[in-house]
From TrEMBL:
Name used for this protein in its record: Mitosis inhibitor protein kinase wee1
UniProt GO molecular function: kinase activity
Spans traversing the lipid bilayer: 20-38, 58-78, 90-111
Keyword S-adenosyl-L-methionine appears in the UniProt entry: no
Alphabetical UniProt keywords: Kinase, Membrane, Transferase, Transmembrane, Transmembrane helix
Ranges where the record places region Disordered: 120-143
Length: 143
């Protein structure tokens, strides 16, 4: 199939190449399902209202793996979309979609992990990591 894509001569796709493309598409759907399963999203969807706080032990590694995959796919599609032989608007759209998924994964890594701390007095969520933004005023010792 790669030889067919790189060849300047037009030719038809064989049944083996069609089979391989369909099996790779099915395996990509399986990987997407396994990402949903291991991240704990399927358990949270089907859990009862009282037990909606389900944590999966594979959530963090799945998040890192999908972040790396979406970042690599974004870079690959971006470079392919601007080459003269493979230029297509669909590749640019795919690159933008993978960029959105990768940036949402990066936001989840930065802000969405770790246990929350709920104030007993006010009931407000006190999750402040200070990772990308430094709060120098709160770091000073109160006198």
């Amino acid at each position: 199939m790669i030889v067919w894509m790189l060849s300047p001569d037009p030719r038809t796709v064989t049944s083996l190449e069609t089979f391989l493309a369909r099996s790779f598409a099915a395996s990509l759907l399986l990987v997407a399902f396994l990402n949903l399963l291991f991240s704990g999203e399927l358990q949270a969807i089907f859990a009862e209202a009282g037990a909606a706080d389900v944590n999966s032990p594979y959530a963090s590694p799945t998040l890192y793996a999908t972040l790396i995959y979406n970042t690599a796919s974004c870079i690959m599609l971006y470079t392919y979309s601007y080459s003269h032989s493979l230029s297509s608007s669909w590749l640019t759209i795919g690159s933008v979609l993978h960029l959105i998924l990768a940036s949402s994964g990066l936001l989840l890594i930065m802000f969405g992990q770790g246990p929350g701390h709920i104030s007993k007095r006010t009931g407000a969520d006190k999750r402040t990591s200070g990772f990308p933004f430094k709060n120098a005023e709160s770091d000073r010792k109160k006198r």
